[in-house]
Amino acid sequence: MSPTHNSTSRGVLRTVLAAEVLSMSGSQLSAVAMPWFVLESTGSAAAMGLVMAAQMIAVALFGVLGASLSGRLGPRRVLVTSDYSRALLVTLVPLLHQAGLLPLPVIMLLLFAIGSFFAPYTASQQALLPFLAGEDEKLLSKANADLQGATRLAILIGPPVSGLLVSWLGAPTVLLLDAGTYLASALILSVRLPRGLAPPLPTARRNTRAAVDVLRRDRLLSCWTCGQVLTETAWQALFVLLPVLAREQYDGSATLAGLLLGAFGGGALSGTLLVGRALRRLSPIRLSVLGRVGQTTVFFALLLPLNAPGLAAVLFTAGLLNGLSNGPIAAVRTARIPAPLRSTALTLIAAFGLTGGSVGLVTTGAAAESLPLRTVFALLTLCQVLAAACFVLGAGRSAGRTAAETSRAPASPTTPSTSPTSPTSTKTTEN
After folding, report:
1. How far apart are CA 320 and CA 263, in angstroms?
2. How many helices (H) and strands (E) does the chain have?
């Protein structure tokens, strides 16, 4: 890369990171405010799980149905449109509440609409990274770690602040602040993100089938996608339990729920900051696997009788290992998928993973009302054990394959040419 290109790349990356911190900070405000609002309004953990699951179901559904759409529109258009749309939709929640027009089905519908933008948005973010960092797995790992760091910083700051604000101002006002962060992110991206950067690809609808074929043929991609589904199921189930634990087991408030989620964010941010140092000693694949196995080991501590500080310590440690492995996981996957199929394939991966998250959200609220918490935690730990096994199995005989080799693999009759061109697409954010 020339010095001019390096300077442009750094400027674009800073713009994307600033927008991510803003929009994710708002999302984390809602991560506490929305379930707390529903829990207080209905008194039902099951209803809270259903409301939050509506958003996750939309992520999965629109991720699968619109996987190739993000590639055809281009990253810039998807990012800007998604943030403007989510700003409007989130604003409707407190406005309708004020007017007395916000029954539970309407909340679910609005969250479903908000969730429909998530998978294309995250795929479009990662679509820019190969253009900025190149195809080398270690460089991509560092670029992904930077993006993950922005996300984790938001998770560290947002929930504790949200808990305080909910206690002070009320959930509807906090949701208006969330809408404001989406609007600010959209303005930054529309002004600072150059047009024509990673332009749209002339993809066809059949690219969805071709992307599925790539994920199916590559043992690492297929196993790691299954692992992500299981991991997302366990994490989303645990996250939906935090307000319940804070309110019912620890006799706390929204502030405690925010602090618990913030403990995970602090650990994840710490892990992300250590990625560069860890990559000096370990390959991206090895770091990915070790991080996932370590995260699973920490989950066994949930089976112990923990007080609130103990639970916060477990969340911090699991978050640290999660942060260490997320960037390398995303980089390894990106490097193995041919460039013309990246946006589609990674949107599908995000959708599959968050389908698991939807299952976790829907089932955990009801399970918490009918089963002992230790039993629920045992099931979540089992999910993590199976996920770790998938990561180990996928890495076993797949360490050296890259996108270039994937593109030379035999293609199905419906698969377009997948020889690498200029990098153009993709991202998924994993929990």
Report:
1. 10
2. 18, 0
Predicted confidence at residue 298, as pLDDT, reads 93
Helices 45-65, 219-244: inter-axial angle, 10-degree rounding: 150
Q: For residue 132, give every residue at least 6 positions away whose Cβ sits within 8 Å of its Cβ, in sequence order, or none.
A: 9, 12, 13, 143
Q: Which of 356, 428, 390 is nearest to 60 (CA)?
A: 356
Question: CA 206, CA 183: separation in Å to the nearest integer?
Answer: 34
Radius of gyration of the chain (CA): 20
Cβ-Cβ contacts under 8 Å for 352 (sequence gap 6 or more): 60, 63, 64, 225, 228, 229
Q: List the chain residues with pLDDT less than 70.
A: 1-10, 41-43, 45, 60, 63-71, 126-145, 147-152, 154-156, 196-207, 251-254, 365, 397-431
The whole model's pTM is what? 0.65
The residue whose two tokens read 């305080």 is 164
Give the whole-angstrom CA distance, residue 214 versus residue 415: 9
> How is residue 293 annotated by DSSP?
H
Phi-psi region of 134 (alpha: psi -120 to 50; beta: other; left: phi over 0): left
* Measured distance CA(228)–CA(311) in Å, rounded: 23
Measured CA to CA, the distance from residue 133 to residue 143 in angstroms comes to: 7
- Burial letters 99-109, b for 16+ CB under 10 A, else e: eeebeeeebbe
